Amino acid sequence: AIPRRQLPLEAGDGAIYTPLVTHEEQQVLDRLDFILRNFTELRQEVEELRNSLQCLAAEIVGEIKSHLEETQKVTRRRRIPFPRERSDSTGSSSIYFTASSGAANTDDGESEGGYTTANAESDYDRESEQDSEEGEDEVSCETVRTARRDSLDLVNEDDIHLMSDSSVEEGMGQLLQQADQLHSGDEQEKREGFQLLLNNKLVYADHKDFLWRLARAYSDMCEITEDAEEKKSYASDGKQEIEAALQKCDQSAECHQWYAILCGQLAEHESIQKRIQVGYVFKEHIDKAISLKPDDPKSYYLLGRWCYQVSHLGWLEKKTAAALFEAPPTATVQDALENFLRVEELSPAFSKAGRVYIAKCYRDLGNNSAALLWMNLASELPVNTKEDAESKRELEEMQLVLEE
Question: Where is the composition biased (Acidic residues) (predicted)?
Fold first, then answer.
C-alpha cells in the first residue's frame, strides 16, 4: 500500500488523504510526461512532412507530363512522312518455319490498337542529329524513372490513375504511330525505332500494344545485324518481351504472330531437333492469330511459308521428326498454295515474295502456264523488302528454266 501523507489537525473532517509519491516515482512520471510531449511534437512534424511530400509529388507528376508533351511536340515537328522505298524484312532461313511477313504493307496499314502506319523519312541529317535525339530520349526516360522511384509511394490512388490517364495513355498513341513509321523504314530508321521503344519501356511496359511492337523491333534488329551471336541475343530478348505481352493478354493476333516469328528466328541457331519442335509452336501460334484476326493476310502468308517448307522437308528432317513425335508435321504444296491465294484475296499485291511463292507452288504442281502468269504478276511489283530482293533472284532463275 502507498503510504499516505499526514494532514494537520486543523484540516477538518473534509480533508482527503493523498498518496505519498517517492522521488523515484516522480522521476518516472516526469520522463513519461517528457516522452508524451515529444511524441505529440513528432507527430505534428510528420504530418507537416507528409503534406509537403504530397505537394512535391504532385509537382513532379506535372513536370513529367509537361516534359513528355514537349518531347512529343519536338519529335512531331522533326518528322515529315512521305512514301519511300523500304528495305525491311523479317525473313528467316529456318527449316519449314519462317519469320518473314514478306509484305510491302507490313501491318495492313492499321495496327491492332488502331494507329495508322505510314512510311516516313526524317527532315534532318541523321548522322549529325542522331546523338541529340537519343540524348533527348534518355533524358525523358531518366526523368520518368526518377519520378516513379521517388514519388510512387507518395501519390494516392486517385493521383496514380490521373497520371496514367492524362500522361501515359495520352502519349502512347503517338509513340506507337511513330514506332510503326520507323519499322516501315530503312535499317537506320529501324534502329531508331528500336531505341525509341527501348527508351520508353519504363513508362509503357504494362501495355500489350507497346510490348508486341518492342518485340517486333527486336526482330528487326535480329535481321539487321550480321553477327550470329547478336542475332541470337536479339531474338532471345524479343521472345521474352512478347511472352510478357502474351501473359497480359493472349487475345492479340499481333502478339501471337510475333511470338511465332521470334521463335523461328531464335531456332535458326539451334539443332534440327529444336527447330522441329519450334515448328509445332510456330504453327500453333499462327493458327491462334488467324482465329483472332481471320482477315489478316500476314498470318496466311506466314502459314503458307510454313506449309511450303514442311512440304519440302528433307529426308533427315523427316526421319528426325518421325523419331521425336508420334505425329510429325504434315503439309502439302497445295496447302501452301491455298494460303498464298488467300493472301491475294484479302490484300491483292500484298508482296512480291508472296506472288513468287504462288508461282513456285504452281510450278511444283506441274501447272507451268499458271506459274508463268504469277511470275509476270510478281514482276510488276516493286522490291520493298530483303525477302522481295531474294524472291526477285528466284524469279529470274525460274524464268530461265521455264523458257528452256
Answer: 130-140
- The residues, ordered by sequence, that sit 6+ positions from 268 with a Cβ below 8 Å of its Cβ are 92, 93, 94, 231, 235, 275
Q: With CA atoms as reference, report the closest residue to 310 among 275, 352, 344, 269.
A: 275
Where do we find the cell 524484312? 89
What pLDDT, on a 0 to 100 scale, did the predictor assign at position 322?
80
The full set of domain ranges for the chain reads 184-269
Type and span of the H or E element at 26: helix 23-78
Q: For residue 166, what is the DSSP state?
A: I
Q: Which residue has the higher pLDDT, 269 or 279?
A: 279
How far apart are the C-alpha atoms of 263 and 243, rounded to whole Å? 11
Confirm whether pTM is higher than 0.70.
Answer: no
The residues that bridge with 122 in the sheet, in sequence order, are: 79
Provide φ and ψ at 79, rounded to 5°: -105, 130
- Ramachandran quadrant class, 96 (left: phi over 0; alpha: psi -120 to 50; beta: rest): left
Cell output for 134: 537519343
Q: Which residues pair with 80 in a beta bridge?
A: 121
Helical (H) or strand (E) element with 80 = strand 79-80
- With beta carbons less than 8 A apart as the criterion, state whether 276 and 317 touch: yes
3-state secondary structure of 348: coil
Burial class (CB in 10 A: 0-12, 13-18, 19+), 178: buried
Residue 122 DSSP code: E
Element of type H or E holding 121: strand 121-122
Phi-psi region of 102 (alpha: psi -120 to 50; beta: other; left: phi over 0): left
Count of alpha carbons within 13 angstroms of residue 13, beta-carbon side: 0
| Cβ–Cβ < 8 Å for 184, 87 | no
Give CA 78 to chain center in angstroms: 24
State how far the Cα of 140 lies from the Cα of 200, in Å rounded to an integer: 8
Q: What distance in Å separates the CA atoms of residue 370 and residue 8, rounded to the nearest whole number?
A: 130
Q: How is residue 375 written as a grid cell?
A: 511470275
Cell 492524362 belongs to residue? 166
Q: 184-269, which class in CATH?
A: mainly alpha
Q: Say how far apart CA 216 and CA 196 lie, in whole Å.
A: 13
At a CB cut-off of 8 Å and minimum separation 6, what does 344 contact?
Answer: 350, 354, 355, 358
Q: Please state which of the ranges 68-72, 104-108, 128-132, 172-176 shows the lowest mean pLDDT.
A: 104-108
